[in-house]
Design brief:
The complex is a heterodimer of chains A (274) and B (158). Chain A is mainly alpha-helical. Chain A is built from 11 helices and 3 strands. Chain A has a 3-stranded antiparallel beta sheet, with helices on one face. The chains are: A mainly alpha (274), B mainly alpha (158).
């Protein structure tokens, strides 16, 4: 008796048109694919959850229940009495703002009815295969310049500027090479910091730098876990405590790896003497 | 006055360069690169202004700078129809307390090597630097998120 009442209540709710089995399958696989790409490229949890929801409902589902972990996304799509659940793993985190912007744009277009599921799949495939916007040498040069600019902001002189520039560019190059060879991310960070520290300190050994500590602090900044830490704070404030804590710990681990690399560089060269 | 202006211009220039490097690293869309640079310049220049002109502490100044970056990022996101985090992250990076974090780390190393009766001085220095690093990071985060919390008050969809 009681059960029948509940089912009646469900039936009286507004539903979207009945979806084909394939449509329901596409709705969940496409929305989770988009969510995976967002998480992999550094979007905050609220954005991931909202975009998965927009894509799922945009493709015709009544509702989605979404669980966003940092290394997996789980969603259930519901349409009338039919529902489907899928888990998608999210390995390899990095930062790529172009992908986040593109997917946000796609979900906007989908909500406006400008895309169907076939076009969306094609678009997602395009975004997935998109080459990076900037040539790797441009990135090496730009990151070197950025760290050198930091040494100026930390009140270093011009000799520090050039030492920091060469150390940071070298470190960025090493980081790209290690990243390409699938070295563990934390090891990559520690080795990169080690290289930056060695370059700065060997300049100091040849009396080329006046204040090695400024150059050391500045040239390691290219490794700063800015995106994990900002996302951690954002998640915590917006109520996604679990992912916030995980992102925060990730950021702290990266910071520790930076410290480890720099400490080894200081021990090897003995500069600056502590 | 001219002196202060010159300091601010230099400050904005170098922090824009720093923001550019990280924008390249984060692979921002090309059309947003210039605005990401401006966001770095705004954040750091406002922090320097607050410290130099109004004698604010670095934590408070960072909060002001980060709030400016957050508002600028929201404005640009609305104008350019693109996620605000592109501008917020590139702007916030320039406020990161690199030197304080570095001094904390070096201080911890020093504790192990100084004589035991001098260690307390080093320990205090380490604690001060660590607290400053932490507070500045919190100030960045709160400043960046504040405009979102104040502006996005629509009913949640999920």
């Amino acid at each position: 008796m009681n059960d029948n009442l509940i089912i009646d209540a469900i039936d009286q709710r507004d539903h979207k048109p009945l979806m084909e089995r394939e449509e329901l399958r596409d709705a969940i696989s496409l929305s989770l694919w988009a969510g995976q790409m967002l998480l992999q490229n550094g979007a905050d949890t609220k954005r991931v959850e909202e975009i998965i929801h927009h894509i799922g409902t945009g493709l015709g589902c009544d509702w989605l229940d979404i669980v966003v972990q940092l290394d997996a996304v789980i969603a259930t799509t519901t349409n009338n009495h039919e529902f489907r659940t899928k888990v998608r793993r999210v390995p390899n985190h990095g930062v790529n703002m172009q992908v986040i912007a593109e997917i946000a744009d796609l979900s906007y277009q989908l909500t406006n009815g400008e895309l169907d599921r076939f076009q969306l799949r094609r678009e997602l495939r395009r975004v997935d295969k998109m080459p990076r916007n900037y040539n790797r040498w441009v990135v090496v040069f730009g990151v070197g310049l950025a760290c050198a600019a930091f040494s100026r902001l930390f009140a270093g002189d011009w000799s520090m500027f050039f030492v920091t520039f060469s150390a940071a560019s070298m470190a960025m190059f090493i980081r790209q090479e290690l990243h390409r060879r699938y070295i563990n991310p934390l090891v990559t960070v520690a080795l990169t910091a080690l290289v930056a520290g060695l370059v700065v300190n060997s300049a100091a050994l040849f009396d080329l730098s006046t204040e090695p500590s400024i150059a050391l602090a500045a040239s390691a900044l290219l490794l700063v876990p800015g995106v994990p830490l900002i996302n951690a704070a954002e998640d915590l404030i917006q109520g996604y405590i679990l992912t916030g804590v995980i992102r925060g710990i990730t950021g702290v681990l990266i910071a520790l790896a930076i410290a480890l690399g720099l400490v080894f560089a200081i021990w090897i060269t003995g500069v600056p003497s502590v | 006055m001219i002196n202060l202006l010159w300091i601010l211009v230099q400050d904005a220039f170098w922090s824009a360069l720093a923001a550019m490097g990280f924008a390249l690293l984060f692979n921002v869309p090309r059309r947003t690169l210039l605005y990401a640079m401006i966001s770095g310049a705004i954040g750091h220049a406002i922090r320097t202004l607050a410290i130099q002109q109004f004698g604010a502490s670095i934590e408070l100044a960072t909060l002001l700078g980060a709030m400016a970056v957050g508002i600028w990022a929201k404005f640009l996101a609305y104008r350019m129809k693109t996620p605000s985090m592109i501008f917020a992250v590139c702007g916030a990076i320039t406020l990161v307390p690199g030197v304080f974090a570095y001094r904390t780390m070096i201080g911890i190393l020093q504790i192990t090597s100084v004589p035991i009766d001098e260690a307390s001085i080093t320990l205090v220095a380490v604690s001060v630097n660590a607290i400053k690093t932490g507070l500045i990071l919190v100030a960045i985060a709160v400043g960046i998120v504040m405009p979102t919390l104040l502006l996005n008050r629509e009913k949640p969809v999920v």
